[in-house]
C-alpha cells in the first residue's frame, strides 16, 4: 500500500484571527509509524503526521488547544493519540476508538490519559464491521462525563436512529453526518439532520469539512466552499450551544483537492458571523465537553 500525504505542505496564515483560547476540536495524528504502527486493517497508509506537526499548525493558525480524534488507520490502538495528548502539556484532550470488550480498568486508563469520548465509525469505505449491539454495550459503560462521537453518511441516518436513540450519553456527530450541502440549508439532508437534532437536546455536531462536503465538481464547488457556508451557517445559528469546529487535519485519506488549512479557518466567520457565535463555537462549547472542570 502506497503511503499518502493528505495535508497541505505550506498552509496560509488565516485572514481571520480566532479568539484567545480557541480550540481545534477535530484533528488527528498519524504515527510516527516507527513508534506507533498503523493497523493491519487500515484502508489507507498515511505518511507520518505526529504531534510536533500538529502543534506547529495549531500555533500557525492561532489556536490554543486541540481535541485529537483517533484516526481509523490506527484501529483500536490509541497509543499515538495518547502520546500526542501527553506531549500537549494540558492543551489537548482526545476521542478514542476502542474494542467494545474493553475493560473498565482500561477505560479508566484512557480517562487518565486525557480521553473524554469514544468514536463509532459507520463509513463502509473505512471500516469492515460496525457491530451496533456491541457498540451500545460499551456506550453504557463509559466513565462519567464521556460522550460518543459517531461518523456516518446522510443516507444511513434513519437506519442508525434506533441505535443512536438508545445511547445513554451525549452524542457528537462528525461533519453533520455528511449532508449534501449543494441542496442548500433547506435541502432534504439538512432537514433530516435538523429533525434528528430536535429529537434530544444532548446531540452535538461538528460544522466541519467543507473540503469533503463541497468538493469541486464540473466546475462548481471547491474552495471557497460557498455551498457549505450557505447551508451550514443557519444550522450553526439555530443550534449555537451544541456546535463544534475543527480543521480535520491532516485530512485523512485526502489525495485530491487537499485543503489549505488557513482557508478552512477563514470559513469560521462565514458560518459564525458574530463574536458571540465564534466564542461559543471555538471556546465555550468545546470547553464544556472536553475541559468541564475549567468551563
TrEMBL record:
Gene3D superfamilies: Metal-dependent hydrolases (3.20.20.140)
Spans traversing the lipid bilayer: none
GO molecular function terms attached to this record: 2-pyrone-4,6-dicarboxylate lactonase activity
UniProt keyword terms in alphabetical order: Aromatic hydrocarbons catabolism, Hydrolase
Source species, domain of life: Bacteria
Any GO BP: 3,4-dihydroxybenzoate catabolic process
Ranges of residues in domain Amidohydrolase-related: 23-290
Database matches in Pfam families: Amidohydro_2
Enzyme Commission numbers on file: 3.1.1.57
Catalysed reactions, semicolon-separated: 2-oxo-2H-pyran-4,6-dicarboxylate + H2O = (1E)-4-oxobut-1-ene-1,2,4-tricarboxylate + H(+)
Family label: Belongs to the metallo-dependent hydrolases superfamily. PDC hydrolase family.
Protein name: 2-pyrone-4,6-dicarboxylate lactonase
Organism in which the protein naturally occurs: Sphingobium cupriresistens
Lineage, top ranks: Bacteria, Pseudomonadati, Pseudomonadota, Alphaproteobacteria, Sphingomonadales
Amino acid at each position: 500500500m502506497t503511503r499518502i500525504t493528505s495535508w497541505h505542505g505550506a498552509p496560509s496564515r488565516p485572514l481571520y484571527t480566532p479568539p484567545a483560547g480557541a480550540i481545534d476540536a477535530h484533528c488527528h495524528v498519524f504515527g510516527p509509524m516507527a513508534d506507533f504502527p498503523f493497523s493491519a486493517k487500515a484502508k489507507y497508509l498515511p505518511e507520518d503526521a505526529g504531534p510536533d506537526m500538529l502543534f506547529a499548525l495549531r500555533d500557525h493558525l492561532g489556536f490554543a488547544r486541540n481535541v485529537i480524534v483517533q484516526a481509523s488507520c490506527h484501529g483500536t490502538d490509541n497509543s499515538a493519540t495518547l502520546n500526542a495528548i501527553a506531549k500537549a502539556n494540558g492543551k489537548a484532550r482526545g476521542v478514542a476508538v476502542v474494542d467494545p470488550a474493553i475493560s473498565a480498568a482500561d477505560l479508566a486508563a484512557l480517562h487518565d490519559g486525557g480521553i473524554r469520548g469514544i468514536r463509532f465509525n459507520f463509513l463502509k469505505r473505512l471500516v469492515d464491521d460496525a457491530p451496533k449491539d456491541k457498540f451500545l454495550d460499551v456506550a453504557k459503560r463509559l466513565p462519567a462525563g464521556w460522550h460518543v462521537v459517531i461518523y456516518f453518511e446522510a443516507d444511513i441516518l434513519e437506519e442508525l436512529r434506533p441505535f443512536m436513540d438508545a445511547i445513554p450519553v451525549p452524542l457528537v456527530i462528525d461533519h453533520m453526518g455528511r449532508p449534501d450541502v449543494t441542496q442548500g440549508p433547506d435541502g432534504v439532508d439538512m432537514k433530516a439532520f435538523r429533525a434528528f437534532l430536535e429529537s434530544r437536546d444532548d446531540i452535538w455536531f461538528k460544522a466541519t469539512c467543507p473540503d469533503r462536503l463541497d468538493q469541486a465538481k464540473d466546475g462548481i464547488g471547491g474552495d471557497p466552499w460557498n455551498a457549505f457556508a450557505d447551508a451550514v451557517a443557519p444550522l450553526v445559528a439555530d443550534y449555537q450551544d451544541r456546535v463544534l469546529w475543527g480543521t480535520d487535519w491532516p485530512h485523512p485519506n485526502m489525495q485530491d483537492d487537499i485543503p489549505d488549512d488557513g482557508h478552512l479557518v477563514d470559513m469560521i466567520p462565514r458560518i459564525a458571523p458574530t463574536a458571540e457565535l465564534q466564542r461559543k463555537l471555538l471556546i465555550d462549547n468545546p470547553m464544556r465537553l472536553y475541559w468541564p472542570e475549567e468551563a
